[in-house]
Amino acid sequence: MKKMKILGIGNAIVDVICKVEESFINQNSLTKSTMKLVDKKDLKKIISSLNIEETISGGSVANSIVGLSQLNNNVGFIGKVSNDEFGIKYEDGLKREKVKYFYSKKKETTPTGTCLILITPDSERTMVTFLGTAGKINENDIDINAVKTSEILFLEGYLWDEGDPKKAFEIAINNSNKVAMTLSDLFCVERHKPHFLNLVEKKLDITFANEQEIMSLIDAKKFEDVIEFSKKIKKLIIITRGSKGALAINNDEVIECSAKKDLKIVDLTGAGDLFAAGFLDGYIKGRSLRESLEKGTEMSSKIIQTIGARLK
Q: How distant is the alpha carbon of residue 1 from its chain centre?
């Protein structure tokens, strides 16, 4: 088997995209720009009054992996689905994007996971997620050979949202050549702060986070605290800062990249996912950190000018 560049492990979620007014977010007790976990009943209740714009295979790391495939990289993905309508659509969606899918779906007692993406007029996205069988992934679902033959293993913080940190991901990390992870979401960081801090300091080679997430992780009072922390642990930390651009901190080196201006933003879904795809594309092709940041910025700028988290 040709050595894979990157293998992603993430929650295999089908994205259901809807446009809503600000009032809908408040009426349903949601916090704008974050992700809320719900059960199947609550998801059905919220979705019942909405018009669906688009349904697409999603999940944070899966979006990044598809972006990497579109940039002509040899990549794969592991994520748990059921052998139901959404599960079949999910697998087909990955195969169409030339992503190797290292999971054999079967009929599960819990259905395939669904994420309702609510886009408000300001282009912010608020997510309501029913993890379904995606959250039941265990060590038997991990193809260790695929992990060992990949240059980089790429994980998402959302994986830790079902109960205790899973043995499955510890096994995957311990068998990887190099491991990267995105912290995923501010509330996700707050749910798993001690565990995530341990991962960032001791296990991960590359960490992706936005400014809010990394500041929450280390209880920073100001952004300079983040730079000091990153230099101290001597790992590669990649931080996105919205309109302030992005930066990479590697040992004592701090490299900044400004955000693109005058964009026609329609939907911020997938901005971080495609940024990670662009950065990792540059990184695995031996580009400089500055060039990798620029590629990440280019990819995120493209995705926020379209609906959904996949470039056509």
A: 26
What totals of helices (H) and strands (E) does the chain contain, helices first?
A: 12, 14
In contact, 238 and 94? CB cutoff 8 Å: no
- Kindly report the pTM of this predicted structure: 0.90
Q: Structural domains in the chain?
A: 4-303 (3.40.1190.20)
156, 250 Cβ separation under 8 angstroms = no
Backbone angles phi, psi at 192, to 5 degrees: -130, 30
Interval 112-147: pLDDT, tens = 999 999 999 998 889 999 999 999 999 999 999 999
**Dist. CA 14–CA 54, nearest whole Å:** 10
Alpha carbon distance 82, 112 (integer Å): 5
CA distances from 158 to 50, 52, 202 (A): 25, 24, 19
